[in-house]
Amino acid sequence: MDTLPIEILTVVLTIVLQDTKSSNILCTSSLFRSIAQRILHQDLCFYSSSQLTKFAHVLSKGGLYLACEPQSLMLDIAGGASFKIFEGLHAVLTQIVSDPQCKRDENGRLILETLRLRLNSLTHDDHRLIYTSLSKVNARHFIWTGPDPPHHFSTAIVSPAVFPLFKALATYTRLTHLHLTNIAFPNSVINSDARWTGIPCLPSLHFLYLGQATFLTAEHITEFVLRCTGQLRNSACTSKLEAHSGYVLECIRLVDVYEESIWGPRLKLPHILLASATLLAESGSSKLSSSTVSDLIERLVHVDAKTERIVGGDRAMPEVSST
After folding, report:
1. Residues 6 or more apart from 225 whose CB is under 8 A from it?
2. Do the bridges between strand 207-214 and strand 177-184 make them parallel or antiparallel, or are there none, so unpaired?
3. More exposed terminus of the chain, fewer Cβ within 10 Å: N or C?
4. Predicted local confidence at residue 95, as pLDDT
5. How does pLDDT run across 117-146, given as a tens digit for each residue?
6. Which strands form 43-46's sheet, in the order they lie side by side?
7. Using one digit for the tens of pLDDT, what is the confidence trace for 197-228?
8. Where are the extended beta strands (E) located within the chain?
9. CB within 8 Å of 115: residues ≥ 6 apart
10. What pLDDT is recorded for position 239?
């Protein structure tokens, strides 16, 4: 098999590494080891906290060097195994970013195409580590979903994790696609967070997907749309948008999003349109017309209901403009 062209071996080993312990392949031959390491290091995947710790330790001791520039990094952690996971992620990223193979931005952060998390955050974690670890990266695509099956309505991103998450994402100058599911936004009654004032301006963002989200109000979506499109004159947002030569936001997709708990009302497009009219009236802005803002929101925001309860809650009923 060593006589096969490198291109064919790469395809074969990529498939094999998906189902086989990598150590078995790496020990087969020096050629297999070289190719397999490039495959593994190009798309780094970790499935436990101990893997993160061991990988960081080996890199720090000089026992391993990256075989190529990493393109993506994924954490796929089982539901109850995410304790201190961001501590491990911080350790790994600290070592990776110092490797000569990695590509860094002007602030010394690791440039990735995709950073994907499939794990639960925990209420009693040190959530500062979410910001500390994630701010070591500058990714084009960021995905955080829960480890449970899609039809299970569970919370992977707990409300105390929301502020440090978006604080880190707001520093990503290359972010074009943001996909978050199983997220509980801070609620002023249940779990108030004075630092949370809504989704921040993300001037490079093209696509936003929010699924299975709770406590996300129509007002927050309205303000986010108006911030990211330059309709609300905010000095920080305005300067960022000017640096990107205007807004690039193309689509916001909201799937199974609730304004309160899952027993409360779903977030629907008419609610967002009503919130935008209220916001305009309160701002007293004469530069923005209600029809202009409504057209903007209807063009950018898409609200869908994917799952529904058999009984109770706000069923996935078709929307009507009067609701």
Report:
1. 231, 249, 252, 276, 296, 297, 300, 301
2. parallel
3. N
4. 94
5. 999 998 888 889 999 999 999 999 999 999
6. 43-46, 72-76, 110-118, 137-145, 177-184, 207-214, 251-257, 301-304
7. 889 989 899 999 999 999 999 999 998 998 88
8. 43-46, 72-76, 110-118, 137-145, 177-184, 207-214, 251-257, 301-304
9. 72, 73, 74, 134, 137, 139, 141, 142, 143
10. 65
